[in-house]
Amino acid sequence: MPIGIHVSISGSIDKAVDRAKELGCTTFQIFTRNPRGWKFSDLKEEDTKNFRKKLASSDLVSPLDHMPYLPNLATPEGQIYKQSVHILTAELKRSAALGIPYVVAHVGSHKGKGIAYGIKRVTDACNMALKEADNNSMILLEITAGTKNSVGSTFEHLRQIIDGIRANSRVGVCFDTCHAFAAGYDISRKEGVQRTIKLLDEIIGLERVNAVHANDSKGPLGSGLDRHEHIGLGYIGEKGFRELFSHKHFKDLPMVLETPIDGRRDDVGNIKKLKQICS
């Protein structure tokens, strides 16, 4: 099973590959630039070549490029929206240059304008970015936790966005376990996992689910709380992860952990725990 974590690009972006290998990852996720600002520099040609060379000579598969924190593809605010589309476009181009197949995108907040408005904004943003970045990189829409005014916390939201995207083959879904659970999909027990997978297949199609963010949840079912917990120590629990990742589709997807680092466990500990659960 491809299991990994989000790794740093500090020093130069190619060092992310080294760090992923050192931690025993078989996949990984990065930001291609500072995730907390709007401005960014072009990728250096030498660093890009080194990244691709290291990736090609490794056993790492299907890495993920995660969008920075500031963009909001559903916002009604004109300047923020323009900048958000610009960054999505840039990330699609940067990921293609690096040989990364997927760009994971937070769907965003409609800021009180309503779900239908937010879905239209996200759909338009994706269409503009995919047209401008004419390559093979895909956008993976990440399911959200259901916080106030958020778009993308139901499978129906994601389906509507997908249906509105013209380059349909270049859009998929990143299934975040914590977010899905917080949004009300009970993946903590066998019956709930089976129902969730059935709904996911009926509404979106399992073939659209291309990656997983594997995180336990500090908040209870349907809480709307986007608070990640160590694997097996939250409300989803070991049984939930075992059931989900025993499914034939999910066990082959790249799984990236975004779990805490504290006195109880670190990244290596969470990778080990997930492998133990899935074995």
3D architecture notes:
- The protein has 279 residues and is α/β, with parallel strands linked by helices.
- It has one domain (3-278): Divalent-metal-dependent TIM barrel enzymes (TIM Barrel).
- The chain has nine helices and ten strands.
- Strand 5, helix 5 (155-163) and strand 6 form a beta-alpha-beta unit.
- Helix 3 packs across helix 4, helix 4 crosses helix 5 (155-163) and helix 7 (190-203) crosses helix 8 (237-244).
- The N and C termini lie close together (9 Å).
Structure at a glance:
The chain has a single domain, classed as Alpha-Beta Barrel (TIM Barrel), CATH 3.20.20. The protein is built from 9 helices and 10 strands. It has helices at 15-22, 45-56, 78-98, 115-132, 155-163, 177-182, 190-203, 237-244, 267-278; strands at 3-5, 29-30, 64-66, 102-106, 138-142, 171-176, 209-214, 216-217, 228-229, 255-257.
What helical percentage do the residues reach?
25-40%
Q: How many runs of DSSP E, i.e. beta strands?
A: 10
Given helix and strand content, the structural type is alpha/beta
| CATH C-level name | Alpha Beta
Instruction: Describe the sheet with the most strands.
Output: 8 strands, parallel
Principal-axes shape call:
globular
Rg from Cα: 18 Å
Mean pLDDT: 97
What fraction strand? 5-15%
Low-confidence stretches: none
N-end to C-end Cα span: 9 Å
So, the CATH homologous superfamily?
Divalent-metal-dependent TIM barrel enzymes
**What is the tally of helical segments?**
9
Oligomeric status:
single chain
Number of domains: 1
Looking at CATH, which topology would you report?
TIM Barrel
Secondary-structure element series: EHEHEHEHEHEHHEEEHEH
The CATH architecture assignment turns out to be Alpha-Beta Barrel
Strand order of the largest sheet: 1-10-7-6-5-4-3-2
